[in-house]
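Fill in residues.
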């Protein structure tokens, strides 16, 4: 059985004061989660120490929203893996569609980020996904195959999470149908070449859609944006329920 990974990506939200208030409310809500899942929060860099301290001892892991490929150097505005390790960070999101779009991140750069993460014992969460135009042009499989192949070159497939995030479903309220998300997650698993890799779905996940997504055979978790900013809604997502086998 693959352990589910339920991750919240806060994007550019939450001052330290807001992060502390979130953690205080969230902590009791996730005190008794089943052992079949891991909860992860990716705060903005500045709030990482606050969240790490406020949730210490809960089992909630911390992710960074990106990581640079060098350990140090003249890279204004960037943060490296050793800097994250100092704060107990365990996962690093790489290749999210927002930096791909706004900062023109290439598959080659994303691969370097993933490699640097693994070299420092951070688990990369590689995000892949197609635009609406690509889906309508029936290019979904080709685009995602390329992102997986180039993003994971030289990467150990046993220390990795991949998140399938159709771009048209991010922040739009349009969740991809659970069976279609499952189909793509299954393809990704085959391309990664490790049956046990954790493959997440992301894109407008919310408390109303989580149970149906998690019941799918190839969806091992979710990457949640908007709905992870509210402690009650993210705790409900982390507390997803699977139907009891008859
Ligand atoms: P959303 O974001 O849940 O707000 O759609 C998901 C993501 O970008 O990871």
């Amino acid at each position: 059985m693959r352990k589910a990974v339920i991750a919240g990506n806060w994007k550019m939200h939450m001052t330290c004061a807001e992060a502390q208030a979130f953690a205080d409310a969230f902590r009791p809500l996730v005190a008794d989660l089943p052992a079949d899942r891991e909860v992860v929060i990716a705060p903005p860099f500045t709030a990482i120490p606050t969240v790490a301290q406020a949730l210490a001892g809960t089992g909630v892991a911390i992710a960074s929203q990106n990581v640079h490929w060098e350990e140090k150097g003249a890279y204004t505005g960037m943060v490296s893996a050793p800097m994250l390790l100092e704060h107990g960070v365990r996962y690093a999101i790489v290749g999210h569609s927002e930096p791909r779009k706004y900062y023109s991140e290439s598959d080659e750069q994303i691969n370097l980020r993933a490699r640097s993460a693994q070299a420092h014992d951070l688990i990369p969460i590689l995000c892949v996904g197609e635009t609406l135009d690509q889906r309508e042009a029936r290019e979904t499989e080709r685009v995602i195959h390329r992102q997986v192949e180039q993003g994971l070159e030289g990467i150990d497939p046993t220390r990795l999470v991949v998140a399938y995030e159709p771009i048209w479903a991010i922040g739009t309220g349009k969740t991809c149908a659970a069976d279609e998300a499952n189909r793509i997650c299954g393809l990704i698993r085959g391309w990664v070449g490790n049956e046990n890799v954790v493959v997440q779905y992301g894109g407008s996940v919310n408390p109303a859609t989580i149970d149906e997504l998690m019941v799918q055979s190839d969806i091992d978790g979710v990457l949640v944006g908007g709905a992870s900013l509210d402690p009650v809604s993210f705790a409900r997502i982390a507390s997803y329920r699977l139907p009891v086998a008859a």
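The radius of gyration is 17 Å.
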